[in-house]
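Fold this complex.
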Amino acid sequence: MALPKYTEMRYRVWHYSYLVICTAVFVFLIAPLFVIIPLSFNAEQYIHFSDGMLALQPEAFSLRWYEDMIYGTKNPWGIAARNSVYYAFFSTIGATVLGTVAALGLSSRYMPYKQLIMSVLISPMIIPLIISGSAIFFSLAKLGLAATFPGIVIAHIILGTPFVVITVTATLSGFDDSITRAASSLGSTPTNTFFKITLPLITPGIISGALFAFVTSFDEIVVILFVAGGDRNLTTIPLQMWTGLREQLSPTIMAVATCLIVLSTFILIVTELLRRRSERIRGISAQ
Amino acid sequence: MTAEIRTSDGELLSVKLKKVERRRRTTAFLLAAPLLFFIVFAYVIPIFQMLGRSIDNAEMNSFLTETHEVMQTWDGSEMPGEDVTSTFYYELKTAVENKYHGKIATRLNYEKGGFTSLIKKTSRKLKNFDENANFLDQFIDVHKKWGDIEYWQALKRGTDAYHFRKYLTTFDYEQKFDGSIERIPEKLRINVTLWLRTIFVAVGVTFCCFILAYPISHLLSVLPTRYSNLLMICVLLPFWTSLLVRTSSWMVLLQKQGVLNDTLVSLGFVADESRLELMYNMTGTFIAMTQILLPFMVLPLYSVMKTISPSLMRAATSMGATPFHAFRKIYFPLTYAGISAGSILVFVLAIGYYITPALVGGAKGILISNRIAYHMQQSLDWSLATAMATVLLIAVLVVYWLYNKIVGIDNMRLG
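Structure:
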């Protein structure tokens, strides 16, 4: 964004201060994440940059907190990670199937009471988690499902579906109906058309919705606080972090956090690839 | 008169069309039905059932049904007659036999302190009662508190099938036994403070997010794609990162011995003994929530700004508007949709925030959600917790409704 030569001084000043402000905001957004990473390699007990670290001495860094994370007996990070993945996996499948099918109906022109139904389906995303958490807990408790594996999966399906519905409806809103009409005019059955034409075209939207559902479940903390009921065998990574953070900020938590940042970087890359693929399929070239 | 058009199978076209449309409507609805039923039965109905707890007192009412009915004729101005006391005696006796008098004691204790010991002591002595003598005198003999009319008034009120008193408590009011409504003593008032603080934080965070998001969304929308994609990482990486990771990074930064204070001390801006108190107060809650919710403002703003053609601003300036004037009159109004979408999203998320205030805010930075969680999990006053939850839910639903009206739920976009 080079300025033309004839720009007046005051606009030049304004322009550069605008760039400085933007840089500051970007730093504000991203810097907190990068503070954690070096601290997780700290050789000391304390969470601060030691003189050795600042001088980049190799002995000031170590992997001991990663060892503690994997082999340490105090915190069951292993069970937590396994549970988190299980809950996220099963609730993603549930949320994606239910959400995608519903989105197909919702994006039809003939859908009755579209606004109302859409509002109901999106509500788990809008209603404060503390309310969702306690309501889901009471209803699961009535069915005897509180503090059980299926109960937690059901809770996470509820929280994940709005994201799938939103992303898949958004994908379908840009969908060209004439393609499916062309398919049926050429003699394809509706089922065949769906699996051969519609589904491949909306797959990027579905995967992106599924990713949202996965992350929602994987990061979820408020509802599981109610639903897991303090059972150590049902614990998840966020629950362990929550407990740990309430006691004290330990370097092991920094190590876990670093692993989660790596995971979110991976998810970011996948979503970006999906977006590009989606644009390519629809013939919108990425400039 | 229009000619009757028929399809190849001889049906009237209009009839056939209606049939096809009906079939399509049914298909569309059937597709949405599984999720709709799932959400309604597993989520919407449980929410209403839970909120019902804020006024529900049916259990208590079923324990002392007859006492409650007899007491309806007692106006509470003088000590109750024998009809009331005898009914209460027999029902309490049944309660002791079936061992639910403990529940009665706990529940009545919410109405008036001292009821727990009163019911427990009375229950133990019930077997000594002479069923032919005056019951009120015998009650008073067991415990002199029965001579205090307020306990009988509390008993009458505590056996109502439903009540709305918890909504008064939500706003730091209480109903006296004579029916008048008063504010509770000043040192006990906490809820109104929390409501005001929650609204202040939600509005403030939304405003800060708007101020910070506007310039960067604009920059992202005007930069060539390969640069903006790179900068977009700064927005999307925090967006995809776990909330607890981001909260813990703020704890690392803001602590008294934290990175920010260390830096300020080593640079000589702050003396070592007067380190800034950035955490366990409102400042911490505010800073952390702004950073965590910022992506939710940037994304809708960016998607709206992306659609604004740069030639509009050029046209305005070529016709003599100063850049500031052109911005105010042309560009800014075009971004209203993005501003409202982002603001409402951030506001709704901020008003129900729970985790970050609990960890970063400490006692001085907690919000209403933390109070609801406290009553849900620790004080176990579920009626009060659900009364507060109802008020919060209504606030959120009003904003949600506005969002629907202004932005339209169909236009919600993520990422």
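The longest strand of chain B covers residues 173-175.
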